[in-house]
Amino acid sequence: MLTTAWLNSYAQQTQKMYLSGTGSDHTVQWDFSCSAGRNSGKWTTIPVPSNWELQGFGKYNYGWAKDSSRGKEVGQYKYKFKVPAAYKGKTVQIVFEGAMTDTEVKINGKPVGPIHQGSYYAFKYDISALLNYGGSNMLEATVAKHSANASVNEAERKGDFWIFGGIFRPVYLQVLPVQHISRVSLDAQANGHFKADVYIKNAPANSMVLAQIFTSGGQSIGTPVSIKADSLIHLQTKITSPKLWSSEAPNLYRVDFTLMQNGKALHVISKKFGFRTVEVKQRDGVYVNGTKMKFKGINRHSFWPTTGRALSKARSIEDVNMIKDMNMNAVRMSHYPPDDHFLDVCDSLGLFVMDELAGWHGHYDTPTGTKLAKEMLEHDENHPSIVFWANGNEGGHNEELDPLFRKLDLQHRPLVHPWEDFGGFDTQHYRDFNYGIGNYDNGHSIVMPTEFLHGEYDGGHGAGLQDYWEAMWRNPLSAGGFLWDFADQGVLRTDKNGIIDTDKDHGPDGIVGPFHEKEGSYFTVKEIWSPVYFERTEIASGFDGTFHLENRYNFTNLSQCTFTAKLVRGADVYGKTKAAEVSIAIASPNIKPFEKGELKLNLPSDFKSYDFLYITVTDNHQRELFTWSWPITRPEKVARKLVVKYAQGQATITETDSLYKVTANGINLSFSKTSGLLRKVKNAKGVIPFNNGPILQEGLTNFKSFSQKIEGKNVVIESTYDRKSSYNTLQWTIYPSGWVKMKLRYFPGDYFTNFVGVNFSFPEKEMKGVEYMGSGPYRVWKNRMKGTRLGIWKKDYNDTETGEKWLYPEFKGYHANLYWVKFNTTGQPFTVVAEDEDTFLRLFTPAPKDDQWHNYVVKFPSGDISFMQGISAIGNKTLGAEDTGPMGMKNIFYDYEKEPKRAKELNLYFDFSGR
After folding, report:
1. Fewer Cβ within 10 Å of end Cβ, the chain: N or C?
2. What is the per-residue pLDDT for 605?
3. What H or E segment, with its residue span, contains residue 314?
4. What is 157-171 written as a DSSP string?
């Protein structure tokens, strides 16, 4: 019998002849004229594929187009091409992978078929009878940005995203034998059962179809299957123990279909696929390959600032890698089908996909939607990564189209209506954390929000995710969810000197910036969604190196991961202690999916001499899951090493009418006699403009009745406690060395406070940067504490406003777990050392942000530099901070009754020597 390899060497495979480039990174110039807007009314050239706004034509339009008058631009394209004479007698189709929005095509002056309406769908025409074979041909395409079909505008142009025009995906000729395989629908189940529907165009007499399955390495497996050819044939076989496809193990196979007549191979096509089963058990969950899933997903637009919706395979690879690097396992195509190469990459790298028919509060009419749904399914159906179909979004559901998905999809994948409780899935968007007291968490549907924690500027995404995810993880009816969204939609405006435009607060919703700059939430999500979960562990006396783990993988044993650890000692601010680290070998624990176990470290006897412990986990694809850090040394111990109290001489004090003036080792300090606040700092080099503190935040700065005394060689200035009028107390100790200690005992202003701590003043214009020991390099919020690492960090000053500027990490904001910080200024540096655990450093105030819903608003202390023991949370576009879960609530304090023993205490040391 003839082998399929021999047959394929003689059979004609489908040929492609690109008329355009293959993507945004490889384009071809076509002749072009735009009817309106910039550079209109003249013939010039344009790269194809592209969106014409990004090439200097027409007008920019960010969705929400109620009358669509801004989008009534028409682009005319012309391109000359030659067709080989050898194509004569074959079927030649012209394929457009995507054009916005209505496309009329002519070859050599003759229409090829009806105008195609709809932007995101591949469409094709048979142009065999219109070509000059062996000669020159003229392609003309007229593309109207605004559709003549009102329902297309409702579904596509009124969305909450940028609206573009033009041929934005590749155009090519597809050349086949007259008698050919026109379509193949595959269904490969986890049990090895393989089915295919094979559609034949012009099936000849005495013909048959032969199918053979191959591994990704090209080795044939199973027995070749053949069946008599017809216009539609149903073919099936079974493979013993196939390697299954999942997001964790994306095993792919290839199947070749050969159309034969009388032993002669006429046409062969190849398809990649994966064996995997998707099953929905109502009132239970979604199962992939028999395992119940929690989808850790993100919404993703097809978008790039300089090319709009015109992308490349390299861009798809970058996107999928970034999504997987956040330990996500799923992506939703919002709100339209993606490029074919994006699905190819999801198949090969492993990412579950929800593919979506366009619609955003509006939907296609039934005839149009039927045609476009068919185009989407036939184009995308064989990708194993696709595990859901979505019929529109947020009210943009044409229910008359629902039966098509099951009818046209051989695999019968589940269909959802994002935003609705439909088909056994409650996918409601942006429910606040406590909505669970209603039907959302206590109903009977599988809960899977297709959008939640709506990012806006720096809010959402990681902020609140820890509370949501732990609740999702524990809820048997939860199938996870999809964050909104992946990248800020910031367009490089060719009409505005290259600014990045996010249409105010409409577009800065991403977890990464327009050019994929990583925001703080990127790392928070990475830690929270790590499939290796560390239960909370304190490294204290008696610690034996044991960590308790939970395996949150679906299919992977932790023995397949690599664990490494190291002990880290940071260089101190004065360079007395040198940085050092030592690696520790770890045996990967044998912990099955969804089970718990222990990780054991063999720590050296001197491990307590180090500051931090790091553990890094890498998966079996060499992708780092996260690097966790634990403190070994407490701030009080570091303070003892750094602070120098003794020196020759002693501190001295004098008084004026309003000030205490203290001198020690060349440092001159002034304190208010009535309030105790630091008024002035000066040394031999000049004034350090750090002053006007400590001012209590959400508490009363009611220090009163100050006195001064000499204790040994120290000067002590302290207030007097009074339960009614001066229950907060302040003590300054100035040592002969010039170091200053502030000891504050205080009561928060209320049981519920946005933040607690103290402020000082410092002119922002004089700040150059900081070096600090603590958690970094990204800032934190009360409801976004994960994603940082303990260490020594250096940050130069920047004025980044998240989602408006993209130089990360941001300088301004809260930084956790402070040990010490050195402020580098345009004048002299100065250093502050924290003695207490869990001290936050606040650096200035980011510019205020708001939108029409007033959810994002972030409260900050007054002043410029703060040392806090409780910080504020952050909201997002749809939820205020307190609606994102317990971590988003205000700080809650016990009724201290204003008794000294119940007060909070904050201890800081200051070095104003200018070192």
Report:
1. N
2. 92
3. helix 313-325
4. ITSSSEE--EE-S-E
CA gap 373, 796 in Å, rounded: 51
- The number of helices, as runs of H, and strands, as runs of E, in the chain is 10, 65
Closest CA to 692 of 700, 701, 683: 701
- Its domain, for residue 298, covers 293-528
Q: Find the mean pLDDT for residues 736-749.
A: 95
CATH of the domain at 92: 2.60.120.260
Distance separating alpha carbons of residues 608 and 440, to the nearest angstrom: 48
Residue 551 lies in a domain: yes
Q: Are both 614 and 553 inside the same structural domain?
A: yes
Rounded average pLDDT over 291-310? 98
Instruction: Determine the average pLDDT of the residues in 334-350.
Output: 97
Residue 709 sits in a domain whose CATH number is: 2.70.98.10
User: In 3D, which of 555, 23, 549, 40 has the Cα closest to residue 248?
Assistant: 555
Contact of 726 with 683, CB cutoff 8 Å: no
Is 814 inside a domain boundary?
yes
Half-sphere exposure of 618 (CA within 13 A, CB side): 9
* pLDDT tens track for 443-493: 899 999 999 999 999 999 999 999 999 999 999 999 999 999 999 999 999
Contact (CB, 8 A) for 563 and 617: yes
Coil vs helix vs strand at 325: helix
Q: Which of 270, 537, 505, 244 is nearest to 384 (CA)?
A: 244
- Strands, E assignment, 305-443: 330-333, 352-357, 386-391, 415-416, 421-422, 425-426
Pairing of strands 44-48, 425-426: unpaired
Domains in the chain, number: 6
Same domain, 306 and 434: yes
pLDDT higher than 50, residue 9? no
